[in-house]
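Hi there, hope your week has been kind to you so far. For a while now I've been wondering how a particular protein folds. I'm sending you its amino acid sequence along with the backbone structure tokens. Could you read through the record and tell me how the tokens relate to the sequence? Take your time with it, there's no hurry, and the full record follows here.
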Amino acid sequence: MRAPREYSHIQTLGSCAVGVAVALHLLVTGCTDGTAQLIPSNYKPRPLVQAGSANLLPRLSEALDGWDRRGRVTATQVDDAMCLRIEASGAEQASRVLAAAGDVREGVLYRLGFDVKMTPDTELDWAADYAGLTGWLTARGGGRTLEGAVRIEELRRADAWLPAEYRIFTPPGTEQVTVTMELHATTGTALIRDIELVQERVDAAEERVILQTPSGDWAEVTPAAGAAAPGQPILWVPGGPDELLPRSTPTQDDLQRPLELYGTPGEMCVGMVGLTSPGPLTGVTLTAGEPSGAQGGLVASPEVLAVQYRARRTDFYGGGNTFHYVADTFSAAPPGIDIPPGRTGGFRVKLRIPPGAKPGTYESALQASVAGLSVPVRVTVYPFAPADLGERVMHLYADAGRWETMTDERVLAELADIADHGYNSISLGCRGTARMEGNTVTAYQLAEPTVRAARLLLQSGLAGPVLVYTGNVPEQLAQQMGLQRGITREVHADQWPPQLAVAMVQALKLIREEYTRLGISDPVMVAVDEPGYWKEGSPERLLWDVSVARQAGWKVFDTSSYLPSDPLGQGLDYHCYGGRQLFMDGGRARQVSEATRASGQKLWYYCTGAYSGQVGNMARNRYLAGFFFHRCGADGTASWTFQRPRGDAFDDFLADERTGRRETGQACITYPDPARPGANLDTPQWEGLRQAFYDHRYALTLQQAIERLRKTDPAAADAAQKHFDALLDTLPWNGYPHKWSSASDVSLSAVRRQIAEMIVEVGG
């Protein structure tokens, strides 16, 4: 495996750059001292500097000149401003408006901004692929859509104007940029004002760059630094772990803030510390003493890791052709990190509170190896044990095929780490050999890697349902039966010969017996992924999968986002909806929950892991797998995917070597550690999932404490419940459209601390 490429012209390893010109020279030529670069030299950058522009879209007028309309679209005066008014069209084709900006150029970063007000009476059309106000910001040229189109999506319904922003960096051949918006709703209205498409202003002082990669050019959208860099080295604590980036500079609050860690015995507490310097620093280390208090020492010291910052695309599919710098991985830092002038180096601080720790407050300090710098550390140990999740399931797509190249010791260590992050269920593959007499399957022997994976899973103690992917088996049987090669990929399942279904039922029964013999008594079959009427062949395949599974006595799991009233939502035991069906709208979540439970299905959802916006931060995964899991009341949640890199896991800008088409971003919650084959590098998105597990447990603990209190003091219990509900209501049901401003890691930690205080007060 290749060593990771380091991305970003803001170096954390090496100290060669001063100013834009020198920095760019460094990016192109590389350092001469052998230290790693944050942008690989073969990805040449160039400065991103733009003067800005006026609005490039047609001016709004009552005649809507220059705007193409369909359905109920008008221009109207609201709150002293001319607005687009898009009314719901019910069962008719969605009302739509389109405008094009022709005065655009390739290689420019454009920003679409507007204010939206969707009336509270708006009923979203959940039968549509995308409900609410949706559309596209698209670059076009040569009569076709170019790469990097950005989906517009707004679902917030409120009697207030809410801001929205989208960005696109125009690829070669761009001749125009189009904006389309349509309202998928059965009732209600969307108002849009102050809509503008402008060339974004980017000053040279921001030092933003454009990366030139095999998959095209990508523009940086990393925000500019706030305050000026300090005149001397400063060690400081940001407001939250997600707020520390290479260009970050401390505020006055940051300079006075101790590193505060909270938890119960056995928990992993995390924090970030930054070191900003006006001049270059080399080999900086951070050491921590054992925290102590009136109750004695904690018998544990924080572990300090170095933060590696890299460039990652802002959208998994490349929408907008933009990237940003993120805290990508954490690793041991000997002999220290190098910090270039005017930049900030990051340290990750982890503390496992010992299982036998006494409740109370402990204090210590983190000491830097330069200028006598230090920051105080305060550790609070709570006096309760959080509840477990009971029958609720946290499932991980574990990519267990990787285990074939790993030792048993490494696999078990990985499974222990997975369990420590709250997961009690994973997926396994199903490779094996069928023995056939004619068209009859008489035996099925699981391959040794599959047997080993099952054995190690059982040895790890993960007790949740074991999902088994059997999607490869029909083609295997078809080949042994002499059927058309590739029949299961090229022909819809409703046209497969009946004898293939008979053979599949026989094989599934035998596979089930094999798993039972290994100790997995109730495996769950994974049916076709994400079926939909828009996805050719998938409806027929789902019905086929469910039919053969039922005949063979298997339970069925599927990632179907259709209600049980629809054929694509029927026959499932574990109904795992795309998260949009739950987290986009509270009303829709209740509808889905009621319909799913009424049909006797387990309600699961999946929307966490390494999807767009989740890489390089804790907040997104932490909220959606934690407090949201508690609030929506689902039976299970699934995260995709643990580690499925394509090529170099540290390169987010790959193109297919054969076709030249760009690949997606790296599908990785964690990354392989090049220095330790079989081991993994920790990431913010992975830590966010562990903290989500803790958030959920704290919420359950408080809820259980309130129910116990209700037996002796109903009035006090009612008051506590009201307080708890109000506390959770400070978090948005859906953090996405709020740009996560009110569901940040800072706000999530604040809610958890208040819950902990309530647990102590109520008597948890």
User: Anything to note?
Assistant: Residues 67-199 form a domain with the Jelly Rolls fold (CATH 2.60.120.260). The longest helix spans residues 684-710.
